[in-house]
């Protein structure tokens, strides 16, 4: 397993509870839109066994051409030991990256794409939207729907409706409005639905989409292929 040690280049305070860590891109480190990586803190591999408490699975919110690896995360006042250490890191401090993979690259099948997210889950979709803006081929349109009860919505400079780009963006601050809109979007029986958020959020969205007749193969999750059946109640091929 390749472990890339690198430095924090910049820290952006998106909101009082959300920070983006821009990390120098080490030589040989590659990724694609929709990728996640493991972000490890100093000391995670100091002992005989890795300290899993110093490692988290994080989405990358940048594209390679931006030349920095962006990690956006929510850090509340009361948080885990990992988040407490992360909150106190400064520009120049080292972190480690490894096991980078994309479960949700942008599918280009000539269909409408719907991005359903909660809070900072929007960070996973930022690179998909940027990739679409740069190369809109074989995507009919994209609609983003994000719920954030804090009302401090993220990346509004990118998630802004544009008729020219065939992109619409919608933010809501309560579940009732959110799930009503999911039902409306699911009237497109041929669309592709990407869902990012907590496991509970995934299951709730899947229930709504399946009730509306959306098939499992139309639902994209930021989960490994072997995890999909757990959420979608489908059987893996023998």
Automatic annotation (TrEMBL):
- The protein here is known as Ferredoxin--NADP+ reductase
SUPFAM superfamilies associated with the record: Ferredoxin reductase-like, C-terminal NADP-linked domain (SSF52343), Riboflavin synthase domain-like (SSF63380)
Organism, as annotated: Pseudogracilibacillus auburnensis
Gene3D superfamilies (UniProt xref): Nucleotide-binding domain of ferredoxin-NADP reductase (FNR) module, Translation factors
């Amino acid at each position: 397993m390749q472990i890339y040690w690198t430095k924090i280049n910049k820290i952006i305070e998106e909101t009082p509870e959300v920070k983006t860590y821009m990390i120098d891109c080490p030589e040989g480190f590659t990724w694609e839109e929709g990728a996640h990586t493991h972000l490890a803190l100093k000391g995670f591999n100091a002992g005989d066994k890795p300290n899993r408490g110093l490692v988290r699975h994080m989405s990358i919110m940048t594209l390679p051409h931006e030349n920095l690896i962006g990690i956006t995360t929510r850090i509340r006042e009361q948080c885990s030991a990992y988040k407490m250490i992360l909150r106190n890191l400064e520009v120049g401090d080292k972190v480690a990256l490894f096991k980078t993979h994309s479960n949700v690259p942008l599918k280009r099948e000539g269909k409408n794409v719907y991005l359903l997210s909660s809070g900072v889950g929007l960070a996973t979709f930022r690179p998909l939207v940027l990739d679409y803006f740069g190369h809109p081929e074989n995507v009919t349109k994209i609609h983003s729907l994000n719920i954030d009860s804090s009302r401090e919505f993220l990346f509004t400079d990118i998630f802004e409706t544009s008729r020219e780009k065939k992109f619409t963006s919608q933010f809501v601050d309560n579940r009732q409005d959110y799930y009503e809109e999911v039902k409306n979007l699911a009237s497109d029986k041929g669309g592709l639905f990407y869902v990012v958020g907590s496991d509970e959020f995934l299951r709730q969205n899947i229930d709504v989409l399946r009730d509306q007749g959306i098939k499992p193969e139309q639902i994209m999750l930021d989960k490994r292929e072997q995890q999909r059946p757990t959420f979608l109640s489908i059987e893996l091929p023998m």
